[in-house]
Amino acid sequence: MKRRMLLAALPPLATPAFGQPRYPDRPIRLIIPWTAGSSSDVQLRSLVDQASRALGQPVISENRSGAGGTLHAMHLAKEARPDGYTIGQMHLSVVRRPFLVRAPQWDVTTDFTHIIGLCGWLYGVAVKADSPFRTFPEMIAYARANPGRLSFATSGTATTNHLAMEDIAAREGIELTHVPFRGSSEGVTAVLSGSVTMIADSSTWAGNVEAGQMRLLCVWTAERVPRFANVPTLKELGYDMVVTSNYGISGPANMDPGIVRVLHDTLRDGLMSPENTRVRGLFDMPLVYLDSENYADFIIRRAGYERDMVNRLGIRMD
Question: How far is Cα 175 from Cα 151, in angstroms, rounded to an integer?
Answer without folding.
Answer: 9
